[in-house]
């Protein structure tokens, strides 16, 4: 498309750091963006998977992420999830940039978790257990290290080879980590779950009262990574209530079992606006859970940040080919 920037995955990641993404997402929420007022995700089944459309509008820009999810691709050597993002200005809905959507997802999901952790985790939290060994698991290590001094990292995966490979990749970045087991949650300050699991990954009774759990594994109401024991004990923070009740299996199934009530759900944006810029952390009697399903506004906020950074770097306000 003439005049439309094309921004590939490597450029997306080079233009916006983990800290930048955290700042942009937090600023959007603190400035009044209401996730509940944003368009919902649309899912369309296909013969081999599903297509997802994730639109959003904020700050004079609009956009949509188009994703394909093909579970069978793992066996074929192709990515399971592929995505493209189209960024437009709100006034004319003219496309301004096409970005690698998978890179945006890899960036914005851990960054939003880091926003929640920075708001709610103990300031001295430094022990992290990550369930999963894929891009989201790896991204969470980097994003959470942008907001806390994390020096004890355990990677837990159903595939020991994948866990070892992630430990080695982190080591190449100077980040010490080790392969862990589910029981490591008993000593963790922060637990991140980024898996495709459909049933709980660990015993929620093992999580310390002062710990925080972020769960990002699924947006399907019948799948969960966290058990009802943890959800009963925890302060449960979500992106917005209607979306959580529609898509967050950890929430939906906990409510169905009687372990959680919908009126206990706390939107992250409400906390940020109530606590103010210094992030006053409320006292609590048990752990905190942040359950995220991923929303189109998050892609939009980060895509806009990438677009602005690209234009600053190119010095060309009229756009062009940004391969």
Automatic annotation (TrEMBL):
Q: What InterPro entries does the record tag this protein with?
A: NAD(P)-bd_dom_sf, ODC_Mu_crystall, ODC_N
Annotated Gene Ontology cellular component terms: cytoplasm
Listed Gene3D superfamilies: NAD(P)-binding Rossmann-like Domain, ornithine cyclodeaminase, domain 1
Please give the coiled-coil regions recorded for this protein.
none
Q: Which domain of life is it from?
A: Bacteria
- List the protein's name: Ornithine cyclodeaminase family protein
């Amino acid at each position: 498309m003439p005049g439309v920037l094309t921004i590939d995955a490597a450029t997306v990641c080079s233009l916006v750091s983990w800290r930048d993404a955290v700042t942009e997402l937090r600023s959007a929420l603190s400035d009044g963006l209401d996730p509940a007022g944003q368009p919902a995700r649309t899912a369309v089944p296909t013969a081999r998977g599903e297509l997802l459309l994730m639109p959003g509008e904020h700050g004079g820009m609009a956009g949509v992420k188009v994703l394909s999810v093909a579970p069978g691709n793992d066996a074929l050597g192709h990515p399971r999830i592929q995505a493209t993002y189209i960024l437009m200005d709100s006034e004319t809905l003219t496309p301004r940039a096409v970005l690698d959507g998978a890179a945006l997802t890899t960036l914005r999901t851990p960054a939003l978790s880091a926003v929640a952790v920075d708001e709610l985790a103990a300031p001295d939290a430094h022990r992290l257990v990550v369930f999963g060994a894929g891009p989201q698991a790896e991204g969470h290590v980097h994003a959470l290290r942008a907001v806390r001094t994390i020096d004890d990292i355990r990677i837990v995966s159903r595939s020991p080879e994948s866990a070892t490979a992630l430990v080695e990749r982190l080591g190449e970045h100077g980040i010490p980590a080790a392969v862990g087991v589910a029981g490591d949650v008993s000593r963790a300050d922060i637990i991140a779950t980024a898996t495709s699991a459909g049933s709980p990954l660990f015993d929620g009774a093992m999580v310390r009262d002062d710990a925080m759990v972020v769960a990002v594994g699924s947006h399907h109401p019948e799948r969960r990574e966290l058990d009802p024991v943890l959800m009963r004990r925890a302060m449960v923070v979500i992106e917005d209530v209607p979306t959580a009740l529609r898509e967050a299996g950890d929430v939906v199934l906990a409510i169905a079992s009687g372990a959680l009530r919908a009126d206990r759900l706390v939107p992250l944006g409400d906390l940020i606006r109530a606590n103010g810029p210094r992030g006053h952390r409320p006292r609590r009697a048990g752990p905190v859970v942040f359950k995220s399903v991923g929303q189109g506004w998050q892609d939009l906020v980060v895509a806009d940040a990438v677009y602005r950074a690209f234009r600053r770097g190119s010095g060309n306000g009229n756009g062009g080919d940004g391969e």
